[in-house]
Design brief:
This protein is of the alpha+beta class. Helices cover about 55% and strands about 15% of the residues.
């Protein structure tokens, strides 16, 4: 059977692990959700900005590269866009020869991350607009990989601090349990003294939780003492009652006619 200390340690470790995992996961989910909402607003602004870069040359509508932000011109910069205008498609130079992954046609931030160039995890926003009386779909993407890596680092750091905190808490609990159970050791010593005849009862100056135990043991000792006293008294009476008949029998045994 496991000791009380082992049971308490197991219960504490289990509770802290569950609470810690839930706390860290909830905190990361809240941060991730907040960041995605922030990037949704940022990507929407980017899409609106890109809409203003569209120029018209006769029937041809195309984006003006010179008016695009610099990060759309650097290959694999982590920020990309794609425009679809009546069957024609323009992509940012940052995509190089790649394309943005196909997504649903719903307006707004896409729920899931999508794989982009160089194994980047992309957060994608799709906006539907109209300019020059033409329907225009602008897809804007941002690399979310650095944030995911940061989350992984946070998990590792949290796990390391969690293990350290758990060890400290276990040491503190061990000290608390030993201190809390010290009255039981005192009672054990007093019971050994009872067995050696060095005391007749246990001290009742004990914690409230142990008082019923000490009282029951003292009541048992008192009852046993009373029973032994009655037994000694009964044996004494029996001895006194048998003394006269035994004396008569011994007297008769010494008569000459019996021998």
């Amino acid at each position: 059977m496991k000791s009380i200390q082992q049971r308490l340690n197991l219960g504490l470790v289990t509770s802290l692990l569950i609470a810690g995992i839930l706390l860290v996961q909830t905190a990361l989910w809240l941060v991730d959700n907040g960041l995605r909402r922030y990037f949704e607003a940022t990507l929407q602004q980017e899409a609106t900005l890109l809409l203003t870069t569209l120029t018209r040359n006769g029937e041809i509508i195309e984006p003006d590269i010179n008016r695009q932000p610099i990060h759309y011109r650097r290959p694999f910069s982590g920020q990309y866009f794609q425009m679809d205008i009546e069957g024609q498609q323009w992509r940012s130079r940052s995509l190089w020869d790649g394309t943005l992954p196909a997504t649903t046609s719903n307006t707004g931030l896409q729920a899931n991350l999508h794989e982009g160039p160089q194994a980047q995890e992309l957060l994608i926003f799709i906006g539907h607009y109209e300019k020059f009386r033409k329907p225009i779909t602008i897809t804007v993407a941002r690399d979310y990989t650095p944030i995911l890596q940061h989350f992984n680092k946070v998990k590792i750091i949290a796990a390391a601090f969690g293990v350290l905190a758990l060890m400290i808490i276990l040491l503190i609990q061990r000290w608390i349990v030993r201190r809390a159970l010290s009255p039981l050791e005192k009672i054990r010593q007093q019971i050994a003294q009872l067995h050696a005849g060095e005391r007749s009862a246990l001290d009742t100056d004990v914690p409230e939780e142990l008082l019923p135990l000490a009282s029951q043991i003292n009541n048992l000792l008192h009852h046993t003492e009373k029973t032994l006293e009655r037994s000694r008294h009964a044996i004494g009476n029996l001895s006194h009652a048998l003394k006269t008949p035994l004396a008569v029998i011994f007297s008769l045994l010494h008569r000459p006619e019996i021998q």
